[in-house]
Design a protein that fits this description.
alpha+beta; five-stranded mixed β-sheet; four-stranded antiparallel β-sheet; 17% strand
Length: 327
Amino acid sequence: MTDHLTRTDPAADARLDRYREHSPFTDPGAHADLLRGSGTDFGALHRTVENVIDHYRATPGGVGPEQLADIDRRWIASQLGALADRQPGALERPRPAACRLGGCCRDHSLLAVAILREHGVPARTRLGFAGYFAPGYFSDHVVAERWDAASGRWRRFDPELDQAAYDFAVDDLPRGEAAGFRTAAEAWRAYRAGTTDLADHGVGPDTPYSGPSFVHRYVIADLAHRQRCELLLWDGWGAMAFPGDELDAEQVVLTDLLAELTGRADAGDDAAEARLDELWANDPRVHPGRFVATHSPVGRVGRTDLEGRVTEWSEVAGERLATAANG
């Protein structure tokens, strides 16, 4: 196995080419010019995403109510529309806090991917856990990958990070056992190998959202992002367990399969990549239908119509919705 995608298989070439194209989530709609005007080197991507997006949990002093409401925007077109309304002009132009967007790591990385795709660069988002934010804890996190044609491999990077603050390459994140970022599949496989109970993998040490059921959700969600279906971190569908619930035998077997195939595909195994494509196309346990359940961190829950691009919010705050919301 290598860290490369085999370049002799037409199917592999087509699979790579699809990452040059926008997904429904990264399509900028009427705001493509904002993406075209942004640079694609790591420094430019970092400056852009940090300039326009404030993390709803990590921003000192918090974010305003308008920015807090932003976190449930899934679509880059919607995000860019809000940014343009609040302050017209290039994304790199300095903005006061009131003119920025509220979001999280998913939004930082998705915007970076949208910029790259708009410039024809294959790119995708990946879900996992980062050990470089809180000592001794792997926080749930979304990073990005871009295809490096010169070296024939996916180059993983974290657009939120300022290189000056870290002693590793933030534009080419280390891989392997000691890496600061591990994919959800890698975290799950470590759990099944008995090297972690995943109690230290979750939203944060100050929250109850951690453990096997939480990581299992991210294994499924990472497949969705790999397939260019870049849903919110608090969307649920298919076989996903609710965080904190006990996993049943079928959920464990499915997560084992997805984690194994994802690990092999990340190592360059085209057969594993093709099997993931097949599961995505045919297995409703992993592929969302038209509707997903949304449990927003702002405390509201809803049923999101992915085709209609609208969420019907429940009148009952904190109501728990079934994750299998495909009806």
